[in-house]
Amino acid sequence: MMNYRGSYRKLLGNAKAAAMAAIEIYNKPAFRYRDECMAILLLNAWELLLKAILSNKGESVFYRKKRKEPYRTLSWRDAFVHAEKYFPESIRPLPVRKNLDLLGAYRDNCVHFYNARDFSILIYALAQTSIKNFRDLLMEVLGVALENEISWQLLPIGIRPPVDVVSYISSAPSGTSSSAVRQFIAELAHASEDLKNANEDTGRLLTVFNVKLESVKKIGDADVVIGVEKAEGASGPLAIIRTQDPNITHPLRQKDIIAKIGMLHGKPFTAHTFQSIAWKHALKTSPQYCWKAKEGLLTCYSNDVLIFIQRLTEADIAAALTDYRLYLRSRFKRKAVST
Question: 24 in helix, strand or coil?
């Protein structure tokens, strides 16, 4: 019989093993493919940890099965979306997601950085933060200490002094060969700015330094001055999704979602059904799915909401309707008591 939750113990054990392998690979004195292997293993560790959390909470780690196709487990990005509601208040999902997005962009485009001298210092800083986030989430949600897996009797040996991260960024190399580096640094600055605007903890994006892009006309206000040029080609060398105009990224209103889905599992998809699902899965708190105007008068949704809802099983929807009904009853009773 198919175990839709996967094996929690196996997922947890593999998550810890992958994280330890990433650390061990990075700390090898001589390893030519160091950054690339570390990024692959670290993202794999995160995917396994997120699935372990879902399994521990009784949720499926598989996509909804399609006819005549094999079962597929969630990608790390989709696993993150499902698991972020279990993050404790001390670990906000958005900064952690931005950190992983940057590591993912490097993993998927590492060929563009082969000739970038000292670029590894930036990857090290991102990875260092990611491992700290991993350790904290592992402990806070599952009560497991990653430190227990590590022997700290290490011998620190270095031939060449380490590159200063701020110095590297402030003197970002010029020329067409470093267009990927400049674009990556610009993306880091955008991520930092997004978190500041959202009043989120930038320390979970990158703990070594903060980056801010400023016009040269405001050079006196800049923390770090970076020269960024658009990479050759219309879309540049990196495959990065950036927050854009919500009119483009979140074009749907609730009525649009109801109209587009129409029928789901043989039943009409209503506004109440949508509200139940949105409450149950915290869709309105996820920037991937929902955008709210600061004035609070407008709420819009991305097309990802349609995909998310259509992947839900009939049992998932029934559970959302039941839990939402109980929530509304309890809220009504609290209001009645208070009046």
Answer: helix
Enter the tokens of residue 187. 């993306």
Q: How many CB atoms lie within 10 A of CB 171?
A: 14
Q: Are strands 267-268 and 263-264 parallel, antiparallel or unpaired?
A: antiparallel
Task: State the sign of the Cα–Cα–Cα–Cα dihedral 105, 111, 117, 120.
Answer: positive
Contact in structure between 238 and 105 (CB atoms under 8 Å): yes
pTM value is 0.59
- Asked whether 114 and 90 are in contact (CB, 8 A), the reply is no
Residues 6 or more apart whose Cβ sits within 8 Å of residue 109: 180, 237, 238, 239
Alpha-carbon distance 312 to 318, whole Å? Answer: 10
Please state, in angstroms and rounded to a whole number, the distance separating the CA atoms of residues 98 and 205: 6
Cα 45 from chain centroid? 13
- What span, in angstroms and rounded, lies between the C-alpha atoms of 96 and 203? 9
Helical ranges in the chain per DSSP H: 8-26, 34-56, 76-83, 93-109, 120-142, 165-170, 179-197, 246-249, 254-261, 271-280, 304-310, 314-338
Q: What are the residues whose beta carbons fall under 8 Å from the beta carbon of 273, sequence distance 6 or more? A: 264, 317, 320, 321
Mean pLDDT for each consecutive 10-residue tract of the chain (339 residues)?
73 94 86 88 95 92 80 88 92 93 89 73 87 93 86 57 57 56 82 83 69 41 40 45 62 92 92 94 87 80 88 92 91 73
Q: Confirm if 321 and 273 have CB atoms less than 8 A apart.
A: yes
Place of tokens 């989120």: 200
C-alpha–C-alpha distance, residues 167 and 171, integer Å: 6
- Please enumerate in sequence order all residues whose Cβ is within 8 A of that of 156, keeping only pairs 6 or more positions apart, or say none: none
Please state, in angstroms and rounded to a whole number, the distance separating the CA atoms of residues 39 and 100: 10
φ, ψ dihedrals at 67, nearest 5°: -55, 130
Q: How far is it, in rounded angstroms, from Cα 305 to Cα 256?
A: 11
Determine which helix (DSSP H) or strand (DSSP E) holds 263, and give its type and residue range: strand 263-264
